[in-house]
């Protein structure tokens, strides 16, 4: 059969493939160039950045819940103790798992008897610095927050204060520790105080991000680019947080309520 096109059938396809390859090389090298430029910008800024890039200070401690090593130890024990849930099946640490960045590695939290909760478990590293607690900021302090998951039927389904106090009283360590730390038998209020004291020790300090201020090689090229997006287009840096926790919070709460 006679060929009707101009030239061999594969030549157009070949030309197209060459152009496409050339274009991708150009796009990739332009992207690599901008990644390098962003990283250089971060390198030149790290010493002066107004937000982050310094090790966190000690968190604020409320006057009525001073830290003591014994209180922190008590809070640590309570945090990982499944006796805080009705059938002793779940502890705070089941969802805020130290092996998973004090979260649970799941899109939605899994509560009492496998109840899938509506929200994701936030990491509680540095929660001591939050202006308020929970995604919608509905608890003012760590002390206020701590009783929430215990009493929620879907989360830990706590046995109720009376039964919980009996359980703690029956344990020689708890009986002695509550008396020594709070000067009284266990109460729900003191459980919350001890948990909060423990949580105020969960401060992440020596990360590569913390070291970036003095060491330009602490972050990788892509991490530096992530930081550019975080501070720039993402508008995630501190001033926006303040806005969220101030005027934006009621708007956010209305939005969150519809989820
Ligand atoms: C079933 C999983 C689960 C358990 C158990 C659990 N949490 Fe949480 N935690 C969550 C989820 C989900 C949220 C977010 C809920 C929301 O914002 O409405 C949360 C939020 C928090 C926050 C707020 C953090 C922030 O950044 O706002 C703190 C603090 C916290 N939990 C501590 C505790 C403590 C203390 C206990 C034990 C008494 C506990 N959690 C038990 C899943 C859990």
Please provide a brief summary of the model.
This protein has helices spanning 11-45, 69-79, 92-95, 142-151, 161-169, 172-182, 188-199, 208-211, 221-231, 238-245, 249-257. The chain is mostly helical. It has two domains: 69-199, Cytochrome Bc1 Complex, Chain D, domain 2 (Orthogonal Bundle); 208-259, no CATH class.
Could you walk me through the main structural features you see in this protein, from its secondary elements to its overall organization?
The chain is built from eleven helices and no strands. The protein is an all-alpha fold. It has two domains: 69-199, Cytochrome Bc1 Complex, Chain D, domain 2; 208-259, no CATH class. Helix 1 (11-45) crosses helix 9 (221-231). The longest helix has 35 residues, at 11-45. Heme C binds at residues 90, 92, 94-96, 109, 111, 117, 119, 121-122, 124, 127, 130, 133-135, 142, 145-146, 149-150, 155-156, 195, 199.
């Amino acid at each position: 059969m006679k060929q009707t096109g101009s030239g061999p059938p594969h030549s157009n396809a070949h030309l197209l493939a060459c152009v496409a390859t050339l274009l991708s090389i150009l796009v990739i090298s332009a992207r690599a160039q901008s990644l390098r430029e962003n990283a250089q910008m971060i390198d030149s800024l790290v010493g002066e950045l107004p937000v982050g890039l310094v090790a966190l200070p000690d968190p604020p401690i409320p006057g009525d819940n001073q830290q003591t090593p014994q209180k922190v130890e008590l809070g640590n024990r309570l945090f990982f103790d499944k006796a805080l849930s009705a059938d002793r099946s779940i502890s705070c640490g089941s969802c805020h798992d130290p092996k998973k960045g004090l979260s649970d590695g799941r899109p939605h939290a899994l509560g009492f008897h496998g109840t899938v909760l509506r929200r994701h478990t936030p990491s509680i590293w540095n929660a001591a610095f939050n202006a308020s607690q929970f995604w919608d900021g509905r608890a003012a302090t760590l002390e206020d927050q701590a009783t929430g998951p215990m009493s929620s039927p879907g989360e830990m389904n706590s046995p109720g204060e009376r039964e919980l106090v009996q359980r703690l009283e029956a344990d020689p360590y708890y009986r002695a520790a509550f008396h020594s730390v709070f000067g009284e038998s266990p109460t729900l209020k003191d459980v919350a105080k001890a948990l909060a004291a423990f949580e105020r020790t969960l401060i992440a300090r020596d990360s590569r991000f913390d070291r970036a201020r003095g060491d330009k090689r602490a972050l990788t090229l892509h991490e530096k680019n992530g930081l550019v997006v975080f501070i720039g287009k993402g508008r995630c840096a501190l001033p926006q947080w303040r806005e969220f926790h101030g005027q934006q919070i009621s708007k956010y709460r209305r939005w969150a309520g519809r989820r």
